[in-house]
Backbone:
């Protein structure tokens, strides 16, 4: 089976391993997730972490396979303190004690306030400043994988140093 796998994760989203690595460098920093242009409430909860392996057929009849980690965030103001990077990493660590978590897996955040429908988001690289780590969440768009592969090939072919050309730029 030819699979895209996890190596084609977009540069505007990070993996679980990349997030945990950044958090590990600043464990006492407050962890803020932002979505829809504003931060989640300081009492947000990590209510569920799921690991999945998926296989499917894309719109071009190409087989696809990938792993994905889903972190569900409940956007409520139910705690007196905001979560730290250490606490978030500890929650993920507790999950990893029971489930196999692929650190290179695609990372998806499910966000809801318990009233509005859950929405799927991808996470950008954390911005670290002062005593706070901010992770921007943006809606996960649908895509056409054959088109995405074609665009990547076109971009590589137009680059003088791309895989399609062994010459290096002068």
Residues:
């Amino acid at each position: 089976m030819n699979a895209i796998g996890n190596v084609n994760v977009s540069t505007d989203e990070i993996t679980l391993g990349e997030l945990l690595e950044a958090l590990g460098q600043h464990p006492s920093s407050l962890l803020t997730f932002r979505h829809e242009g504003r931060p989640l409430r300081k009492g947000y909860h990590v209510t569920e972490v799921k690991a999945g392996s998926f296989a499917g057929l894309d719109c071009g009849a190409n087989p696809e396979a990938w792993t994905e980690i889903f972190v569900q965030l409940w956007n409520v103001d139910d705690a007196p303190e905001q979560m730290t990077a250490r606490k978030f990493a500890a929650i993920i660590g507790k999950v990893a004690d029971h489930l196999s978590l692929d650190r290179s897996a695609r990372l998806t955040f499910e966000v809801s306030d318990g009233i509005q429908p859950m929405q799927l988001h991808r996470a950008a690289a954390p911005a670290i400043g002062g005593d706070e780590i901010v992770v921007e969440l943006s809606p996960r768009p649908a895509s056409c994988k054959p088109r995405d592969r074609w665009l990547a090939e076109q971009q590589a072919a137009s680059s003088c140093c791309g895989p399609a050309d062994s010459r290096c730029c002068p």
Helices lie at 16-24, 85-98, 145-158. The first strand starts at residue 30 and ends at 35. Confidence is low (pLDDT under 50) at residues 1-11.
